[in-house]
Amino acid sequence: IRLREGIDTKIAPQTRLQTIQNIKEAGLGWGFCCEPIGPEHTPQELADHIMLGLSLDPESFSAMRRVHLPNSPIADRGQITFLRHAQIVATVVLATAGNPKIFSVGGHEPNLICLTSGATTACAESGANPRDESSETTDRRGLTVADCAKMFYEAGFDGILRGDRTAVPLHDLFPR
């Protein structure tokens, strides 16, 4: 469920809620993202959206800043800074800290300041990306797996987990 779903989008919030219910009934894991965050979103609106996400019982949680695309219908609203994004990620980390089911918190798009604010997930991307005007984001906005691993190393993490939850020590990849 996106911020201002049904207002800024043509999808009714109930449609998203039904999709989440279907995912859960199918036994699939799923994650919630407080997004797409822009300068117009108030602290109260963000807090309410984070609490909505927690009430839906996700396994992971993220916060994503809206990327400014000059020709989009809401381009004039602008974009939040990386610092503001990191503050919101830190809020999500604090809000989810007591929930043992939530195994990861992401700041999307991944960046070093979000990792140092408590995010524990970074996503590599390739192909089409709604935050990019290119059909292949790898050449522009998208990070590779190696880029993400390096970012974790730079943020002071000792290791990373693969999708199968096996650990990879970062000192093996980036000797000191």
TL;DR?
It is globular and about 50 Å long. The termini are far apart.
Task: Give the SSE layout.
Elements: H1 13-25, E1 31-37, H2 43-55, E2 60-65, H3 82-96, E3 104-108, H4 112-116, H5 145-154, E4 159-161, E5 167-169, H6 170-173
Parallel strand pairs: 1-2, 2-3
Antiparallel strand pairs: 4-5
Helix pairs in contact: 2-3
What does this structure look like?
With 176 residues, the chain is an alpha/beta fold. 34% of the residues lie in helices and 14% in strands. It is built from 6 helices and 5 strands, in the order αβαβαβααββα. It has a 3-stranded parallel sheet with strand order 1-2-3. A two-stranded antiparallel sheet has the order 4-5. Strand 1, helix 2 and strand 2 form a beta-alpha-beta unit. Helix 2 runs parallel beside helix 3. The protein starts with 12 loop residues before the first helix and ends with a helix.
Structure keywords:
176 residues, alpha/beta, 3-stranded parallel beta sheet, two-stranded antiparallel sheet, 34% helix
